[in-house]
Amino acid sequence: MTPPVHTDLIDGLLAAADRDAITKHVVGAVIPDRDGHVLLMHRASGDFMGGLWELPSGGVDPGEGLLDALHREVREETGLPLVSIDGYLGHFDYASGSGKRARQFTFAASADLGVPVRLSPDEHDAYLWADAEGQEQVSPAVKAVLNTWKTSTETPARDPHVDNRNGEQVT
């Protein structure tokens, strides 16, 4: 189960980033479709980290909250409005194009899938609803986030000795 997204969680994430001397905050979203495929974006070859498949993500503007930035960035990069932010999946650090210490905070999210994906052509030249095999194209850091997401969405196996309606032992 992914941790719910509350103010205390966000405050803790930002405090930890400050302690770690992170100077750039980035947000990312794992957005599944109805079949469990995940939306990946392909960075344009002329852009920073060109050719990389990544999650919809982007920088947090000064004075902007992480969740507000997540809604804005997903809409800017994909055209999709988010309908919910379903949990926090983790973070990873990297050096930004300007050399800043960046931390990407990644969240599980649901989007309005009735809206077609619309790319921001200056950043991305393709998108993919990636199945498990397609998800192997991402960086090791994003793979770790996707593994956390997969684990959080798996249904626990039913114990045949427990009545799942009330948790009592069955004989």
How would you characterize this protein structure?
- This protein is α+β, with helices and mostly antiparallel strands and 171 residues long.
- A hairpin with a 5-residue loop joins β5 and β6.
Question: What labels would you give this structure?
Answer:
disordered C terminus, three-stranded antiparallel β-sheet, four-stranded mixed β-sheet, globular, 32% strand, 171 residues, 3 helices, 9 strands, alpha+beta, single chain
Order of helices and strands: HEEEEHEEEHEE
- What overall form do the CA principal axes indicate? globular
Largest sheet: 4 strands, mixed
According to DSSP, the number of beta strands is 9
State the helicity in percent bands: 10-25%
Q: Can you give the mean pLDDT?
A: 88
Radius of gyration (CA) equals 18 Å
Q: What is the end-to-end distance?
A: 29 Å
Strands side by side in the biggest sheet? 4-1-6-5
**Relative strand content:** 25-35%
Number of helices: 3
Low-confidence stretches: 156-171
SS class = alpha+beta
Summarize the structure.
The protein is α+β, with helices and mostly antiparallel strands and 171 residues long. Helices cover 23% and strands 32% of the residues.
What is this structure's SSE topology?
Elements: H1 7-19, E1 24-30, E2 38-43, E3 53-54, E4 57-59, H2 66-78, E5 82-95, E6 101-111, E7 124-130, H3 140-153, E8 162-163, E9 168-169
Parallel strand pairs: 1-6
Antiparallel strand pairs: 1-4, 2-3, 2-7, 5-6, 8-9
